[in-house]
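Researcher: First entry.
Model:
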Amino acid sequence: MALPSFSDYWNELEPAVLIVVGFLLFVFPEPATSALGAGLMLLGGSWWFYEWGR
């Protein structure tokens, strides 16, 4: 049984990075970065659920 390659998980990695970066911007105490971080987390979460069923 072969191990899966990195390219098999590429679609799951991109939304996760958006969620993590969005969270880091959200907790930074600046209103503009918090709004941008919340938007990135929403985009990453929706992208993650979109990729989940594919």
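Researcher: Second entry.
Model:
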Amino acid sequence: MIYFMFATGIENSYPTIQGGRVRMDEMAKCGHYDRWQQDFDLVTQLGVQYLRYGPPIHTTWTGPDQYDWSFADETFARLRALDITPIVDLCHFGVPDWIGNFQNPDFPEQFARYARAFAERFPWVQLYTPVNEMYICALFSARYGWWNEQLSSDRAFVTALKYIVRANVLAMQQILAVRPDAIFVQSESSEYFHAQGPQAIGPAELMNAVRFLSLDLNYGHRVSSDMYEYLLDNGMTRDEYHFFLDQTLKHHCIMGNDYYVTNEHLVHPDGSSEASGEIYGYSVITNQYYARYGLPVMHTETNFAQGERGDEAVRWLRKEWANVLRVRNDGLPIVGFTWYSLTDQVDWDTALRENNGRVNPLGLFDLNRAIRPVGQAYQQLIQEWRAVLPTQSVVLGLPVTPPSQQTAPQRQQAAQRAQAREQAYRAAPTNTEPAKGEQP
């Protein structure tokens, strides 16, 4: 039984820009393909046992039911040898060239087969994020026009969103068919839109409803009448909506939510918006999401640039950790925290819209793999809190098994227990809305 997951991640975004001609592959930009063994050693050096990580989809998934597992075989074997538990990102802001983009109606079913093939090849993997930040992926690709299809309309946004979330749902189904005790961490951006004045209340309320759509659909949560009309007006059919409403996978999920200083927005009367900076903060917004879904929570992404003083990122780490403790003390079942990512990133200062090669000092280590002050602070934080949190009753225990204990008999026993829980869940009189805090 695992009580709290301290995590980091290897940045593996790979959207396309410039009409699909340029792929912004963060693993390449950050040197991971050449230094992956060293990167994994850095994870163990920090004392981190959980790593958000996934194979590059565009080089692994080479065609319909065609896969090149060579890189994944090496990297995941090493993770297992080091006893690092991966939270596997299967789709992180992009698709292979042969799929095209997120407007492709074939994507969900094709992706589900890819997810199953991965689960069959790596049966010891238990934790998954099938599609990372579904809302942001659809927003940046099909509403802002920045990535992939580079479209800018509500219809394109709804199309991308329904295919992305359907892909996530179908992938969960296929993974569970292989690994019945799999747990899904929905890493999703937690947003809030503040009205600049009374005239901006209407546009802000609309945006605050749209921010929930990806998780509403994923968890089978009924949307408001306004959002139902919005979805249908922009191309979703009644049958498509009811596909999502009929899903019963929520009890396999952890609501992973990401929070950065850019996650809050100031909305103007004309409906435009700009970054507002931190106003509410992580704990307030997380309480909003928890009130809606009632699921265990994990803080799945945050970072801050190391600035001229050298302590800016450390201060942000302390602030976010204080927010995690506030959420915990409020009685919410929070199960983990993540500084994202392990190393510095490249070109995220333009949200990967421009291929400038500009290094962003956001990592626990720089791109030379030298530890940053925030890396040292995170290492110390883990050492201090790891022994304390399991003794606190408000911290939820998760049935997660480290890779070193993932033997075939153990997996079979875990599968049998998971199947028994699933049968009991489906036999219950009401199984669409688990009680708040119910563990997967």
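Model: Note on the second entry: The first helix runs from residue 26 to 29.
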